[in-house]
């Protein structure tokens, strides 16, 4: 058989696709691979819609997007994947099945399935897409990787019941799976609520114990301050002032090295001891209070 003769634009895109695949797999140059994919998609333009056969422009464009998605994921730029793809297909309904599948699996792996909630719903609701052979597998993928992880059980049931691709036996199997997933979701919610209540109770217990300790400390501090105030109220201030003045004379005004000051210092020390004993005698000790 003769080799397929592609149009010049498709040949250029196919060449860029081959370069991008080599950069992705062999050289691990992910940024350069994305650049080749973008150049290939731009060369095809917006008119490369769905077309039959592996040599069509639509197939080349889809393959370029698949390589670009993988390269972006390798660079941990998965948040850009959906917007990057939609700049070439414009609306979710026009996404090829392979591209939609990769997007669902990618955002499910990074635990961000809500990104594909509206996109998948729009694609599955399109009448043209319902005639595609991949429709059933993509619906199942959307069901298990997007709707059920997000707790969208009613939407999942409506989607299964309204799908003409599945027969009654398959629909019952899917509905049973949805019911089981709903029960597991409910049990997790109950366990989570119980754990939160237990944690709140433990927090309240700790706070209650701390409050009681703080109250005890404040009570003891109040008693100590009251005792000190009572003690200082009972002090003979005249004797205290006299003792302070005598100490001032001894330390500041007198020369301890002078022999003439020794008898006077001795008398001042005796007076200071008498004043100290009078100040801190048992009569002036603060009374013990409960």
Automatic annotation (TrEMBL):
GO terms for molecular function: ATPase binding; protein-containing complex binding. One of its GO terms (biological process) is protein import into peroxisome matrix. One of its GO terms (cellular component) is peroxisomal membrane. Coiled coil: none annotated. InterPro entries: Pex26. This is PEX26 protein. The gene is Pex26.
